[in-house]
Amino acid sequence: MSHKPVIAVDLDDVLYPTAQHLADIVGEPLGIAIDAYHGDRRLREVVASKTGMSLNEAAALSRRAFLHEDFAVMKPFPAALEAIYELAATHDIVAVTARSNEIHATTRRVIERDFGNLIREVYFPNTERWSDEPIDKLPHLREVGAVWLIDDRLSHVEHLGELGIHGGLFGNYPWNQIDALPHGVVRLANWPEAVRAIRDGGVHSLS
Ligand SMILES: [Mg+2]
């Protein structure tokens, strides 16, 4: 049994460039290029506006991209691989992802393929099919005693400071811009920054 401090990491747009990968899967057959990281509209909205299809059709297309055979071909950000390798020497790393249950098995396989035993476990708080309900990662964070959650979604990190868990808001994405970060949350623009912040024990003291 390990007694290293536990870091929880999100998968999509933290370890993997998922938004762009999905945009490519959806856009290529339609002949449209979508830059997922430099627009503030959701994929379904961009597809609908560029093709004239309805928002519902575009949403269905976007959801199906997760099931496309090319989805699992996606490789991690190289900097994420390096960072996880480095952090795993001093921490236990677990993944906590809101991915829905159709792709849980694929996700486990891909994490094993790309990270081997560097990621100890993958947790899936979302057991629904394509649920739009907000997903609560906190029960799993508590279960594993996480000291950090690195996640690109503000909703997943914003209350962690109150609970003594460091929230690392990952990336500078159109969907995670905010004027003032909540207590206990730091922005980690990239993986080298994340490694530094974790080594420093967090920028804010969470007493
Ligand atoms: Mg994510």
Describe this structure in words.
The structure is a single chain. The chain is of the alpha/beta class and about 210 residues long. The chain has two domains: about 5-15 and about 75-200, Rossmann fold (3-Layer(aba) Sandwich), CATH 3.40.50.1000; about 20-70, no CATH class. About 35% of the residues lie in helices and about 15% in strands. The chain contains eight helices and six strands; from the N terminus they run βααααβαβαβαββα. The protein has helices at about 20-30, 45-50, 55-65, 80-85, 105-115, 140-145, 155, 190-200; strands at about 5-10, 90-95, 120-125, 145-150, 165-170, 185-190. It has a six-stranded parallel sheet with strand order 3-2-1-4-5-6, sandwiched between helices. Helix 4 (about 80-85) runs parallel beside helix 8 (about 190-200). The chain starts with 5 loop residues before the first strand and ends in an 8-residue tail after the last helix. Bound molecules: magnesium ion (MG). Magnesium ion binds near residues 12, 13, 14 and 152. The site of magnesium ion has 6 residues, from loops.
Q: What's the layout of helices and strands?
A:
Blueprint: E1 6-9, H1 18-30, H2 43-51, H3 55-64, H4 78-87, E2 92-96, H5 104-115, E3 121-123, H6 138-144, E4 146-151, H7 154-157, E5 166-170, E6 185-188, H8 191-199
Parallel strand pairs: 1-2, 1-4, 2-3, 4-5, 5-6
The structure holds magnesium ion (MG).
Keywords:
8 helices, Rossmann fold, 207 residues, binds magnesium ion, alpha/beta
How would you summarize this macromolecular structure in one to three sentences?
The protein has helices spanning 18-30, 43-51, 55-64, 78-87, 104-115, 138-144, 154-157, 191-199; strands at 6-9, 92-96, 121-123, 146-151, 166-170, 185-188. The chain has 207 residues and is an alpha/beta fold. It has two domains: 6-16 and 75-199, Rossmann fold (3-Layer(aba) Sandwich), CATH 3.40.50; 19-72, no CATH class.
